What we know:
- This protein has 5 helices and no strands.
- It starts with 7 loop residues before the first helix and ends in a 9-residue tail after the last helix.
Amino acid sequence: MKRSRELKPLSSEHHQALLVAFQMRKGLEGHPEAAGAPRDLPGLVSLARRFEGQIFSPHAAAEEALLSEHLAGPDRLRLAAEHFELKGLVEHARNSAPGEQRVALAAFADLLERHVRWEERELFPYAEAHLDAEALAVIGGELERLLVLAGQGPRARR
Length: 158
Ligand SMILES: [Fe+2]
């Protein structure tokens, strides 16, 4: 899908999110081809926590801070509610018994994938169609600062 240059930092993290969702699902199935994912439960919980702390949290905060004001009411609510739910599932996976951990991680992977596809297919096209060039440029500059440059510092990506 064609994506405006300004929103690319978010889209490239969406690719990472889809990979994590894929790894999580394969890992939970004990699949031999898990794309480098751990297959044991503690390893999968760590993967979810690392993704949440290093990528998802700053990503979600940036979307809410920069995009929310430009969205229609229901979309703004959905954006925040799904971010909140995703964080809650990671938290739940961290704090529960193994059976529950599996359920929480599977729900996390499913919602993460649905959430990213919704943003890419509906939310971002809407934002791109409704933002003028100036507003988009401001958002692009802030994303560069919050995600791209910050990512080169202490929370550097793999
Ligand atoms: Fe996103």
